[in-house]
Amino acid sequence: MGALEMSERIVAAFVPLVDCAVLVAARERGFASAVGLDLVLVKEPSWASLRDHLSLGHVDCAHALAPLPVALTLGVGHVQVDCVAPFVLGRGGNAITVSNRLFAEMQAAAPNQALTEPVTAGRALAAVVRRRKTSLTLGMVFPFSNHNFDLRYWLAAAGVHPDRDVRLVAIPPPLMVESLSAGLVDGFCVGEPWNSLAVAHGLGHIVTTQSQLFPGAAEKVLALRTAFAERSERLPLLLRALDAAAAWADDPANRDALAALLARPEYLGVPQPIVAAALDGRVPFASAAGHRIADFLYFHRRAANAPRETDGLWAYAQMVRWGQIAASDGAERAAASVFRPDLYRCGGNMATAEPVLPPFDRVPFSSNVSAYLAQFELHTPFAAAISA
Length: 388
Fold this sequence. Notes:
Elements: E1 9-14, H1 21-28, H2 31-34, E2 38-43, H3 47-55, E3 61-65, H4 68-74, E4 83-92, E5 94-99, H5 100-109, H6 118-131, E6 137-140, H7 146-157, E7 167-170, H8 176-181, E8 187-191, H9 194-200, E9 204-209, H10 210-213, E10 218-225, H11 226-231, H12 234-250, H13 255-263, H14 272-279, E11 282-283, E12 291-292, E13 297-298, H15 309-321, H16 329-336, H17 341-345, H18 369-373
Helix pairs in contact: 1-12, 5-6, 13-14, 15-16
């Protein structure tokens, strides 16, 4: 192929996490160039930075938190920018890690129990919260993220109110381990490799994972401004490249090669074995070192890349539950319009998203948002604008 024209250039922002794998593979393994695209990847230090560059048009698209394009479309916590998510880049991959001190307190509260699944770990943490004289501080990566929503859901299921009983703070993923080391947080919810890196450094223990809390959840998506997505002739090409890259990234035969790519300084800059373990679903639980979760993180199988309109509604429901936005029919319709199966199909992808799996507490999500939220006792009323 000859030199690419500037019109065929696509600039994509990403945050250093294992689930940026599909974009990295698309560039480094030639899937983008094979369809005539010059895919340029821009590493962002935080989700706030990525959000700002996407909304201003400094980048064409982004490796984004699944709720982020919903928040932008709704104008929650930032300016309002219509966005779409036509492709899911990865499902799963997050975990909740606590400090050594907090883990010891949880063990004392739940003796002879393996703190490796959501209900047991949640009950142990709730017991610690009740006994403590000072509130725990827990990190999450961004107010409009599954990390924040999953952490809140898990805490609330155990009877811990996330806005009254503990303190939640937003910290960029690459700074999470350092924040734990410095004693600034007692635990955090973040994507890999940062949980495993904290364990490897002897700083904390993983107590549950996103794949245990919400199996098959859409974690990262390709986010674009709606105006760009609906008018660009490059989007179908990009989606074709990403589909091929996702299939390659999900193939176990390519795991070592992918880990080597992601470990490079320009991407994650962490030891290759830690990346490889995350890709293989080997979660370093304290009581089950090397325990493998089959669908801890996946990129293509089980129609992983197909978006579901209900993913936008789920994010909206969490925003309403925790007082980030007031409930309204207009906001609900806008949230449901963000995940776009029609745009996904414009890249030649005909797969249909699999049905939503039940979460750990067996309370299924319903597109009747008000009825769904009425099932939960703990919530935070909407009162003021949320800053981010």
